[in-house]
Amino acid sequence: MAEPGEGLPEEVLALIFRHLSLRDRAAAARVCRAWAAAATCSAVWHDTKISCECELEGMLPPYLSACLDHVHNLRLEFEPSRKPSRRAAIELLMVLAGRAPGLRGLRLECRGEKPLFYAGRDVLEAVHAVCGAASQLRHLDLRRLPFTLDDALVLQAARSCPELHSLFLDNSTLVGSVGPGSVLELLEACPRLRALGLHLASLSHAILEALAAPDRAPFALLALRCACPEDARASPLPNEAWVALRRRHPGLAVELELEPALPAESVTRVLQPAVPVAALRLNLSGDTVGPVRFAAHHYAATLCALEVRAAASAELNAALEELAARCAALREVHCFCVVSHSVLDAFRAHCPRLRTYTLKLTREPHPWRPTLVA
């Protein structure tokens, strides 16, 4: 009797299996010898997503341990409030640290709420271990890790991961503990770094100058989050430094996220005319109309995405209409307040590249769903 997989070549089976969850890959590997060979080949595991909530509990499955050598890019999801999920994530990271030479990308995502008074030290120690072992690591994304990141982690990456192309530390923590000094060391140790995500307090004039150095490789993305008290107290960055950086890297895109912790005087220091803002997210406790108007006047050539969370008002409607008329390159706009019909008409009329928008004319139950432009 023919085995189920005999009619399909291994490369076709691998193409199918790479889209399966971890649990389904394990089930496929038990069907027959042909499927087992395909389910454990490197092509299936090159880009892998693992959810510790539903796929790993307790001991690391033997079949996964055997395939970790093939993982180049890992997206690991876990729920810190559930101990089994957290333990599984830590165990996987520690095993990976022991055999990580081939790892190229690591993205960690926490689901659900963080337990009260839990600082995530055990998770961060596991991340340290992976960084120390993965000398070929090129992409590290910790934006969805709700723990305080520090200089030690940045310096570990600087010492052990010279091939880094992107590093995102702009997470949702309420305390910023990464200083500009460690970021400067990172830039010196990782000359190929092209994308960097930071809290505003981690940025400095010296960092902008280092990025603008003549021998620096092309730099593509700087994501800045302004959400903690340290960000509000950050030193101002002169407009001239942004002018020099933009001249050195004409294709640079800056993403700005301004949260309620940022007072009005800090907002004016952050929004410099020469910053090439491609994405602007405003969730301010104070004035939002002023920043929207500022963006309309100074970011018209670069702004591609806008998100606004504010109270509805006639003044905000007028500012949004002005922005729509000036920012023709916009691809998405999301306003989480009711807007006037004239605002919707303005974005439809003046933004031909618009692909998705959230512009509600009446209150609706949350969550508000965006509209896709055909």
Automatic annotation (TrEMBL):
Record has Cell inner membrane as a keyword: no
Tell me which Gene3D superfamilies the record gives: 1.20.1280.50, Ribonuclease Inhibitor
Q: Which domain of life is it from?
A: Eukaryota
**SUPFAM superfamilies associated with the record:** F-box domain (SSF81383), RNI-like (SSF52047)
Q: Does the keyword Cell inner membrane apply?
A: no
Which UniProt key words apply to this protein?
Answer: Ubl conjugation pathway
Record domain F-box: where:
2-48
Can you state the subunit structure given in the record?
A: Directly interacts with SKP1 and CUL1.
Annotated function: Substrate-recognition component of the SCF (SKP1-CUL1-F-box protein)-type E3 ubiquitin ligase complex.
What protein name does the entry list? Answer: F-box/LRR-repeat protein 8
